[in-house]
Structure formats: C-alpha cells, structure tokens
C-alpha cells in the first residue's frame, strides 16, 4: 500500500509520468484498500506487473535503469525506467545495528520483539517500538503514535505537569478606532489547492475587495518560514483584519473578523 500511495502522489505531481508497480503480492486487506488499488489502476493509470525482479542496472549512455524480471508467463523480460523506488519487506541493516546497540531483542525476521499483550513494549524497560520497527505494516497501521504517546506518558506520571508553563501572548493593539486593513494570504498547498483552484486569479480578485490592504500567495502557508513572513507582513502593512483561528470553521473557511495585529 505504501508503493500504491507513492505512485498515486507521483502521478498527481507529474501527470506525464507512467508509474508501474512490480509486485509479487498486493496486501490490500484493510478497509477500502482494495478499492484504492483499483482507483490507482483506473483513475491514475498505475500499471501493476506481477513479477519477480532479479536485477536493476543503469544503462551507460541514457542513464536509465533497466529492470530485469520474470513475469507470469515465466519469461525473462527487461524494461527501462527513469526512476526506481524499492520497497523491501525486511528491516534496514542500520535499524538492526541500532537495536543491537540499544540491547533490544529481535524476532526471527529482524524486527523488534514485543510483549504478547503489550506489543509496543520492547525487551528493554521503558522503551517502545513503533511503525516499521515492529514489522511489516500498511500505511494505516504504520504510525501508532497515539499508543506510543500514551505509553510514554505512563512512565512520566510522577512528574506530569512539573514543566508546564503558562502560555504568554504578545500584547494586543487596540484597533477599534482604525479603518479596516485586511490581509489575505492565499495558499497553493502544493496541488491540493493549486491543482483545483486558480490561485493567481484568486489573488488578483482579492486585491479588488474593499478594505483589503495586502494580498499574498504562498506555496505552503502552514510552513514555519511562511508564518514568519506573515508576521512581518502584518507589522509592515499595519494589518488589523485577518482570518481568525477563533472563529474559523475549517481549513478553507472565509470567516474574517476584526482583531489585533498579533
């Protein structure tokens, strides 16, 4: 499922690409997983080749990768590719080395050995294993972060809250007597928004709206760098009206509210 998801995302970012998945077995046992595989085939054109790969080599002139494999008809075949991603069902060598340095017991397949009724716990006290260190996982089962966090918090029960600090906000500026100066920041969000919405047109239209003093388009508005840019823009352009997280109903909510320029 990891490979299918990556092939779909790659196709979304590069529509001209022709992704292919060479596989021996597709483990699509989760809810709607099989439907996702079928969508990859029909909607995105991902080609699935049941095969056993024996060799991947680079051609000296073209620098393309030649994949040698045995197909369902038991014939040896070759196919050229410009990109190659390998998905292994075995733990990485460096992960095994790390487990040895930490003194963690491994199972017969080289993954961290968990307890029968507490699979996240390892052979070392107060140490837990998550994601692919525990074994072969699907994209849905690979990140049991909540369980790991809960397990770690249990070890810290005696000191819980001792380092807690009261969150302090910068002082608010009274803008009640000022004319509205609204700032609008439009996000591309890669292709999640930019692939559907004509962002430059939205930006151009936003500049014509009443009381809008500043408009900016960003690739990823949620990134730390862009957040810093937004803070500077609020100060430099004396913005006093913007999207407020206090009243936002969703990630694309158009709710605006007069507020301070924090």
Task: Provide a descriptive summary of the structure in words.
This protein is of the alpha/beta class and 262 residues long. It contains six helices and nine strands, in the order αβαββββααβαβαββ. The longest helix has 13 residues, at 224-236.
Percent range for β-strand residues: 15-25%
Shape call: flat
Termini, distance in Å? 43 Å
The CATH topology of the largest domain is FAD/NAD(P)-binding domain
String of helices and strands: HEHEEEEHHEHEHEE
Briefly, what CATH class of the largest domain? Answer: Alpha Beta
- As a percent range, the share of helical residues equals 10-25%
Number of E strands: 9
Enumerate the strands of the largest sheet in spatial order, edge to edge or round the barrel. 3-4-5
CATH superfamily of the largest domain: FAD/NAD(P)-binding domain
Mean pLDDT: 79
What is the structural class?
alpha/beta
Tally of discrete structural domains: 3
**How many helices?**
6
CATH architecture of the largest domain: 3-Layer(bba) Sandwich
Q: Uncertain regions: pLDDT < 50 for 5+ in a row? A: 245-262
Major sheet = 3 strands, antiparallel
Tell me the radius of gyration.
Answer: 26 Å
List keywords for this structure.
single chain, 262 residues, 3 domains, three-stranded antiparallel beta sheet, 24% helix
């Amino acid at each position: 499922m990891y490979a299918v998801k990556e092939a779909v995302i790659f196709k979304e970012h590069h529509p001209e690409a022709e992704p292919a998945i060479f596989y021996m077995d597709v483990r699509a046992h989760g809810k709607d997983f099989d439907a996702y595989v079928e969508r990859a085939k029909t909607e995105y054109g991902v080609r699935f080749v049941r095969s056993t790969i024996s060799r991947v080599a680079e051609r000296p002139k073209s620098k393309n990768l030649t994949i040698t494999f045995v197909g369902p008809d038991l014939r040896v075949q070759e196919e050229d590719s410009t990109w190659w991603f390998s998905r292994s069902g075995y733990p990485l060598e460096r992960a095994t080395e790390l487990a040895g340095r930490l003194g963690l017991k491994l199972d017969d397949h080289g993954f961290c050995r968990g307890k029968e009724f507490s699979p996240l716990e390892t052979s070392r006290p107060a140490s837990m294993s998550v994601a692919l260190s525990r074994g072969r996982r699907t994209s849905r089962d690979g990140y049991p972060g909540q369980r790991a966090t809960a397990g770690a918090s249990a070890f810290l029960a005696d000191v819980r809250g001792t380092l807690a600090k009261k969150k302090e906000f910068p002082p608010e500026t009274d803008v009640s007597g000022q004319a509205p100066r609204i700032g609008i920041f439009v996000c591309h969000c890669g292709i999640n928004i930019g692939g559907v919405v004509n962002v430059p047109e939205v930006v151009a239209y936003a500049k014509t709206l009443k009381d809008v003093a500043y408009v900016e388009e960003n690739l990823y508005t949620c990134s730390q760098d862009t957040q810093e840019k937004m803070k500077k823009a609020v100060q430099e352009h004396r913005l006093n009206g913007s999207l407020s997280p206090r009243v936002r109903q969703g990630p694309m909510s158009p709710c605006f509210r007069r507020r301070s320029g924090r």
